[in-house]
Structures are given as C-alpha cells and as structure tokens.
Amino acid sequence: MTARSGIVITGRGMVTPAGSGVDENWKRVSAGEPTAVLGPDLGVLGTQVVCPVTDFDASLHLGPGARRLDRYSQLCAVAADEAVADAGLRTGEWDGARVAIVLGVSVGGVETLTAQHVALLERGPAAISPLTMPMSLVNMVAGQLAIRLSATGPNLTVSTACASGATAIGTAMQLLRANACDIAIAGASDASLVPLVLSAFARMGALTKRSADPARASRPFDRDRDGFVAAEGAAIVVLEREDDARARGASVRGRILGYGATSDAHHVTSPHPEGTGARAAMTAALADAGLSAADVGHLNAHGTSTRLNDQAEAKAVRAVLGDQVPVASTKGVTGHLLAAAGAAETVYASLSIEHGLVPPTANLDTVDPEIGLNLAAVPRRQSIQVAMSTSFGFGGQNAALLIGAP
C-alpha cells in the first residue's frame, strides 16, 4: 500500500440526529440505534418520518447572533466550532488569508425562505425580513463561517445534491495540494425538514411510508426497504498538509488519501442502473490515492434505503471492491443527511479506523438478495487502515473519498 497524499484530518465536528458532538455521534452510530421519529404529517402523501436534530438550542452555542442565521448555518457553525477546537486552533492565532472554507449545500436556507413566503402571503411585502437573503442564499453558510472564524482565504460553496459534503472535502484537499491555503475547513450542512421539501420528495416516491414504525423506517440494503428518511445536520473536518500539522504539534485524526468525482449523465434523479458513474468515481479515488481495491478494509456506503440507489451502488461496489469488503450504511441510524451525508460519513469512516470497528447497518433484517455485499447488522471488530466513503446525488453526481489511518 503506497498512498501518496499528505493531507490529514486534524479536527472533526458534528451535529446530527445521532447527537451533538463527535463522541455522542459515534456512541449511537456504533451501537446501531436509529433516530427516526414522526415529523410533519403530509396527509395523503402517506409519510411523516424524519430524523431531526433534537435538544439543540443555537443561542446557547452562538449567543444572540444565532437569530440572524438560518438553521442550516446554525448547525454548521456549532460543528465547525467543535472541529476547530479539536484541531487545537484558535481564531486570531492563524493567518486568516491562508485559511480556506469549502462547504457543501443543497437548497440553502429553505426554513427561512418558506417562513418568509408565508409572511408574504399572509401580511404582504412589508412583513418580509431584511435578513431573508443573507439568511437563505446557498453561499451564506460559508460566508457567515468565514466571518465567525476570520478566515479570508478561498471561500467556496459547492452543490452536488447529496454528494455535496464529499465534494467539499475533496475540493478542500485539492486546494491544499495546490498550496492555495494552509488550513481548510470543509464539510456540509443541511436543514430541509420543512413541509415543502418533504412533500416534494414524497411526490417523487423517494421517502419511506413506514410511519407506523418510524424507528425501523430507514433500512439500507434490506429486502423490505421502501425509501429514505430525510434528516438534518452538519459535519466539518479541519484539513492540513501533514508537515504543517506535525510542525505545530497537532494530533492527526486520519488522512484524506484520494478523491474521485464523476457524473452519470443519465437521469435527473435515478442513478445509472449499472452504477457506471459510481464505479468510475470509486476507481478514480483509488487512482488518486495510488491504492488498489485490496487496500480498502471497509466501505461506508451511500446506502440510502431506496430500491434504485442501493441496487446500483451494490453493482458498483462489487465491480470495484468485490463482494467481501465489509460494508455498512450509517443512514440506518441517522437517516439521509442530504447535503451533509458525505461529510458525516467521512467522519464516521475515520472513527471506524480509529476504533477498529465496522458499525452496524441498522434495521438490516434480511439483505436484499440482489445486493450481494458483505453487510452486517451488528458491529464488527477489525483492524482498518483504509476506508472508502461513497456519496451520490440527484443530477447523477458521484463522489468517493478514501480515508486512511493516522
């Protein structure tokens, strides 16, 4: 195994349905404890299961300024604070011009937009908040974080639907390799659990209808899966070149070894049925890292719990990694974090390496016989040196990341 990348993870932060903070997340994910509950009743659409972030008071973390941020920016700020502190960094003690921020976003501040639309309809234009655009634009999560952290280097928002978090981390790695920055704060955030978005997903037939038993609704790769459970949350990593991190005495949490990104160019919502784009992204990530399929000891799969995605992804995995690599989908616990999924699952993959544990795929009662992967419904203890995380999104977006041991 000869990986060539010198990009390391020095900080991690998370706010997801599995908890606030990396430690709380890992406890629940490694135990396979689902987080799904009943959410907004969508009536005749027949679904109301969601995975929300609970016990979260943004003002306790962010002070009175929290009210000027949409929920997706609030979640991101708290996750970023944890990641920066975990990296042993302090705002004001770094050269802000050498700090990049790269964040993945899907629809942006949709909670703000929908609330303001109601205000417009009920009370007219004068009722609209002057903060509507600063709170809702998709780039504002990165812009607000730059202000919070005094980071004046490259400031990017990437949007590749549910691959956005992985795309952001891969892009940040490339900025570091190109010497465009010395520190990159990367990840994603999403807070789209509003009736408009949930109804749109439901009308597509993408959401589960297992409302009578919400905890068991998200069931990746299971024979009886019937759709995904929408979730919200944020996950952030701090990335640095290894020499820089070692020079300042930072603890290394893991490595970003390789990144691959492709497009299906097939359909606006359905993946290519043979998983060709996913396969190409995985292959590209291996080539970028200078690794072979035999080096991968674990795959944190996209595994959404939809029939089409799970089948297409399984074909890609078998083609690239074979059918023996241990595979898990943490979405059985967290639901689908949408734009933030790839970022959260990168953190989970690094934790799998750190703890020597493949987390269970929650609610996996009977593996769909068409999947043909090495899945487990219980935790597995094993040494892992390299893990892969895959992410796919509407529009045929595909991204794969390789994460290595410290």
Automatic annotation (TrEMBL):
The entry's keywords: Transferase
Matching Gene3D superfamilies: 3.40.47.10
Domain of life, per lineage: Bacteria
UniProt-recorded Gene Ontology molecular function terms: 3-oxoacyl-[acyl-carrier-protein] synthase activity
InterPro entries in the record: Beta-ketoacyl_synthase (IPR000794), Ketoacyl_synth_AS (IPR018201), Ketoacyl_synth_C (IPR014031), Ketoacyl_synth_N (IPR014030), PKS_Beta-ketoAc_synthase_dom (IPR020841), Thiolase-like (IPR016039)
Domain named Ketosynthase family 3 (KS3): residues: 4-405
GO biological process, one term: fatty acid biosynthetic process
Pfam name, any one: Ketoacyl-synt_C
Family: Belongs to the thiolase-like superfamily. Beta-ketoacyl-ACP synthases family.
NCBIfam families per record: PRK07314.1
Record's protein name: 3-oxoacyl-[acyl-carrier-protein] synthase II
Upper lineage: Bacteria, Bacillati, Actinomycetota, Actinomycetes, Pseudonocardiales
